[in-house]
Amino acid sequence: MPDDPGDPDRALLDDAVGRMVRPYTVSEGRTRPTCHFDLMTMVVATGTTLRSNLGLDHTQVLELCRTPVTVAEIAGLTRMPATVIKVLLSDLVERGAVVTRPFNLSIQGSCSAPDLDLLEALRDGLLKRL
User: Fold this and answer.
1) Can you name the residues that pair with 1 across neighbouring β-strands?
2) What is the predicted pLDDT for the residue at 126?
3) Fewer CB atoms inside 10 Å of the end CB: C or N, the chain?
């Protein structure tokens, strides 16, 4: 987020309340992405130099994509609705700035199949607390 008080995008932010722009304004009124994403879709920047300038929100999302990140994480970090993030990501995919892939536990260093014993123990522990 810009810290320069002379930055023209600074007027869109307020330190106390955060973003002062409605989500539909960020996505230019669009409510549906042109590409398919779910909340666990992994997104990563390609490093491609874009010919056109991006707005503040596109730039912020692209910056978060320097390392692989899920759609849900981007929404959480930007405090924007996932639907808006999906529209912005669609724009970035169409420009070749990011690529997507399905979430895969093995990419994260975990085993490819969940440990059923651990999951059952977790479930049992949670049920005891209810």
Assistant:
1) none
2) 84
3) C
